[in-house]
Backbone:
């Protein structure tokens, strides 16, 4: 509370009231009923006590300073020096970028719709075998047994017969048993080599959008892109993004497969030996005309013809699958542009 001396003012007011109306009506200066205002009182010494809070201005109704929202005075609503403050290296320009195909806003230039995300498709780099070496099905020892009598038991073991890689092997003995059994030799080894073939057209892309500002480029520099776009900078060729623009995309046109890695190792799988036979001959050179008898080398006990043996021959055919391996393709634009976004 503060006390304001109003004696002189009171006297002046009374005088003016007398001059105008010939009498003083306190009701015209106080309450409607002539009393002092509810928030003021007269002290014994003639001072009027006034509540100072009545003179205070509420913070809610305070007038803002004249420089509030100073940026609103800029033509584009942002600092016109926003682009200069980025200190971009030479060759970079501001663009709005969207990773999909869309229309540029009205205050931007003509739409540009570059390709993006070049992705190799199936068949871009195909590996195929250039040499196949089948496994060996005619090396090792075939276990041979025989028997005498009507029952096919093959319970008598013979010394083993070597595969000898399918070549004729000399051996002299009397084949006088009634049944013979020979075991199948397991496949051994096998190899292959492969090479890759590149198909440059096996590539797909998607379409993006870049827009160059015709008005207010500083808004992009201040990271205020239009809805659906990112504030970015663009440069010809594949470049390192400048500071402040870490998100890189390569855009362009006419993407192709540009390279294939060497094929991974060619692998021989599913090897097997089929049609294995053990034949006995009466001459030392395995002449087909002198074949005494022959059994399937499958472990079964089989009836044979008898005679004096001077040579034998183990034969079998190999089967296998050849996996040529895989190659990794690289897809790229011949003349890319780098787009880096905030």
Residues:
């Amino acid at each position: 509370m503060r006390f304001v001396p109003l004696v002189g003012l009171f006297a002046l007011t009374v005088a003016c009231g007398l001059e105008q109306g010939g009498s003083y009506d306190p009701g015209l200066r106080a309450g409607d009923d002539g009393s002092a205002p509810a928030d003021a009182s007269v002290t014994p010494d003639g001072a009027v006590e006034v509540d100072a809070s009545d003179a205070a201005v509420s913070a809610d109704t305070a007038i803002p300073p004249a420089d509030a929202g100073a940026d609103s005075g800029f033509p584009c609503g942002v600092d016109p020096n926003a682009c200069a403050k980025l200190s971009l290296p030479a060759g970079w320009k501001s663009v709005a970028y969207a990773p999909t195909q869309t229309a540029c806003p009205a205050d931007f230039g003509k739409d540009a719709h570059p390709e993006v995300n070049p992705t190799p498709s199936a068949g871009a780099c195909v590996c195929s075998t250039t040499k196949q070496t089948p496994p060996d099905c005619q090396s090792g020892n075939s276990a041979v047994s025989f028997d005498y009598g009507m029952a096919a038991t093959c319970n008598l073991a013979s010394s083993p017969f070597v595969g000898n890689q399918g070549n004729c092997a000399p051996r002299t003995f009397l084949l006088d048993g009634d049944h013979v059994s020979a075991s199948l030799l397991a496949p051994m080894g096998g190899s292959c080599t492969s090479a890759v073939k590149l198909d440059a057209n096996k590539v797909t892309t998607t379409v993006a959008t870049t827009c160059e500002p015709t008005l207010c480029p500083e808004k992009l520099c201040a990271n205020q892109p239009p809805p659906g776009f990112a504030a970015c900078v663009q440069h010809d060729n594949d470049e390192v993004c400048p500071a402040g623009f870490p998100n890189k995309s390569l855009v362009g046109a006419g993407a192709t497969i540009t390279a294939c890695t060497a094929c991974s190792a060619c692998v021989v799988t599913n090897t097997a030996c089929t049609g294995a036979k053990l034949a006995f001959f009466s001459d030392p050179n395995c002449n087909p005309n002198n074949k005494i008898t022959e059994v399937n080398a499958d472990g079964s006990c089989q009836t044979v013809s008898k005679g004096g043996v001077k040579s034998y021959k183990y034969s079998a055919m190999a089967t296998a699958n050849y996996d040529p391996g895989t190659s990794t393709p690289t897809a790229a634009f011949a003349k890319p542009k780098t787009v880096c976004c905030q």
Residues 27 and 33 are 6 Å apart (CA to CA). Confidence is low (pLDDT under 50) at residues 1-44, 46-71.
